[in-house]
Structure formats: structure tokens, C-alpha cells
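Late entry, adenosine monophosphate complex.
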Amino acid sequence: MAKPYDHDNIFAKILRDEIPCKRVYEDPFALAFHDINPQAPVHVLVIPKAPYVSLDDFLAEATDPQITGFFRAVGKVSRALGLAESEGGQGFRALANAGGDAHQDVPHLHVHLFGGKPLGPMLAKQPESPK
Ligand code: AMP
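Prediction complete; structure with ligand written out below:
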């Protein structure tokens, strides 16, 4: 079972308008805003409006309309940002960190959308571990 949702996490505060964000998209299911510490020329976060800790929690507990609405929003944002090849863009990467091994820092599900340059390999190359 997922850990309990922390209603004081930073994205919950953004959803309640208690702290600002650079909003790029909003609908009944999702909010998208620019990452405060961008790792690519385009780095936007898409979050569900409902309180889910992680992708694991969301896919286990959310309703079908919430899941459909959220992932439709991810698609709309990638196209609205001009990243999708179907819109003449050069493509993008969508990434959701879930839990400790993935270094998820904020315990409210968020999908990172990266684009605007060639993004390199999917995972950072690690130094060879000793055999
Ligand atoms: P993760 O490690 O997947 O949990 O990513 C959390 C992301 O949230 C990081 O890329 C942070 O730069 C970003 N972030 C943290 N606080 C804010 C904020 N107030 N507004 C926008 N992005 C934020």
C-alpha cells in the first residue's frame, strides 16, 4: 500500500494556489506548470488534481475517468508545447519517478515532460561498479 498522502506537499500547495507556479495548462483532471529547476529547454510537470502519492498509487487507486483524464492532459500538454512529432516537434520524454530508488522528491504524482533538444540516453550512465 502507498504511504499516506501528505496534504502539505509542495504540489498540493500549488493546487490550492498557496504558492505560485508558471501554469501552462489546466483542466478538471490536471494542472501543468514549468519545473522550477529545468533540466532541458522545455521541462514541464503535469500533475493530477486528485491526491495521489505516485504513479503506483494513482494506477492502483484512481478511477478510470481520472486515469483517462490525466493521461489525455499529458498528451494535450506535449502537443500544446509543440513537442510532439505529430505537431511538427522533435519529440519529447515523459518520465514519472515513483518512490525511493527513482529519487521521487515530491510525494504527489507528477509526469515530467522534457524536450527542446536531443535528450540523450534514457538513464544517466553510471560508473562501472566493481565486479
Ligand atoms: P521528482 O524528483 O521526480 O520528485 O521531481 C520533483 C520536481 O519538482 C523537480 O524537478 C523540482 O525541480 C520540481 N519542483 C519542486 N518544487 C517546485 C515548484 N515550487 N515549482 C515547480 N517545480 C518544482
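Residues 10, 21, 35-37, 45, 97, 103-106 surround adenosine monophosphate (CB under 6 Å). Will revisit in the morning.
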